[in-house]
UniProtKB/TrEMBL annotation:
The lineage of its organism: Bacteria, Pseudomonadati, Pseudomonadota, Alphaproteobacteria, Rhodospirillales. Keywords: Cell membrane, Membrane, Transmembrane, Transmembrane helix. The chain crosses the membrane at residues 27-46, 58-76, 106-124, 131-149, 182-202, 232-249, 269-294, 306-328. This is Amino acid/amide ABC transporter membrane protein 2, HAAT family. InterPro entries: ABC_transp_permease (IPR001851), LivM-like (IPR043428).
């Protein structure tokens, strides 16, 4: 019997209950943008730097959490080594900036290096499933971290310092990475762009295939779709989101270190996804902001902030399995469903002169 050709993934969004949930996530992102603009304006007026830098760091780690949720929330793949691509993006961005101080060139180089690494890592990791996938991704990150740790040209254990401050050309405007309110807005814009691209792709039939993979991979193969291609596409998409987010880190801190590749960074990203809400896309963003602020506040009181974060994680798993946004988003989706006119009434309204 001839093999049925694998179907492609059309790009047209699908309108159903999942789309309403996605629209609820969009509304929460709009609220985040408003809050970010207000914080930047307030910080600029007060001359604050610390809290604006902290908020920028939270947005950068939110991109890493978003990449974890693309795999875990939609494909059911738990990556314990997503810091690999976050660190690659950070190191390549730092090397580019120290050679040619260009913001866009640094992003381009980081995305190119991340793409190559994701294709190699995806071929290796997607050969296995379940806990073995998590262990493979963990192992890949540890191997690269050890190589970076022992490479003198990359600063070895001390990392690389002296990343210059650069200008971000935005048409007629220029924003310096040394400007706390300006760079906060740049990080917010990049995060929103990464979210928008991810949300669009996941709200198409391609996203439905990923959800079906999470539910029952064998049935997806019987429908004629290539399960390997779908997993690989999701893996590469998540890696690019993490790599582009990591590219902003040396611009914020002025240095990079092998710690960006360690398991602690990947583990914190998984915790933020669980706390914010798995499979919501916007939940990990709010979770990353919450945990970054908590770590800073609790760290100023005690050295044992990891205990508090651990207790928060266990409480989320036991009492809020859907996460914080997982509780709020269904209510917003129902409200949007009631506010949206039925198809017949919508068609009648469009036909009126």
């Amino acid at each position: 019997m001839p093999e049925r050709p694998a179907r492609s993934f059309p790009g047209r969004p699908v309108a159903d209950r999942l789309s309403l949930s996605m629209r609820a996530s969009h509304l929460l992102v709009v609220l985040l943008v408003v809050a970010g603009l207000a914080l930047a304006a307030l910080g600029s007026a007060l001359g604050d730097t610390f809290y604006l830098r902290l908020a920028t760091e939270a947005l950068i780690y939110a991109g890493l959490a978003l990449s974890v949720d693309i795999l875990l929330g939609y494909t059911g793949l738990l990556s314990l080594g997503q810091a690999l691509y976050f660190g690659i993006g950070a190191y390549v961005s730092a090397l580019t900036l120290m050679a040619v101080p260009s913001f866009w060139l640094a992003l381009l180089a980081a995305s190119g290096a991340t793409l190559v690494a994701a294709l190699i890592g995806g071929v290796i990791a997607n050969r296995v499933r379940g806990v073995y996938f998590a262990l493979i991704t963990f192992g890949l990150a540890q191997v690269v971290a050890k190589v970076v740790y022992n490479t003198r040209e990359l600063g070895a254990s001390d990392g690389m310092i002296g990343v210059p401050v650069v200008e971000v050309p935005l048409g007629p405007f220029h924003v310096s990475t040394g400007s706390a309110p300006g760079f906060l807005l740049v990080a917010l814009a990049l995060l929103v762009l990464l979210y928008a691209v991810s949300a669009y792709l996941l709200d198409t039939p391609f996203g439905r295939v990923l959800i079906a993979l999470k539910a029952n991979e064998r049935r997806v193969a019987f429908l004629g779709y290539s399960t390997w291609r779908a997993r690989m596409a999701a893996y590469v998409l998540a890696a690019l989101v993490a790599g582009l987010s990591g590219a902003l880190y040396p611009m914020l801190r002025g240095f990079v270190s092998p710690e960006l590749l360690y398991f602690q960074v990947s583990g914190n990203a998984v915790i933020t996804v669980v706390v914010g809400g798995v499979g919501t896309l916007v939940g990990p963003i709010y979770g990353a902001i919450l945990l970054t602020v908590l770590k800073s506040v609790i760290g100023s009181w005690t050295e044992h902030q990891l205990i508090v974060i651990g207790v928060l994680f266990m409480a989320s798993v036991l009492f809020l399995p859907q996460g914080l946004i997982g509780l709020l988003r269904p209510r917003l989706a129902r409200w949007l469903g009631r506010a949206e006119p039925p198809p017949a009434k919508a068609a009648e309204a469009e036909a009126r002169p």
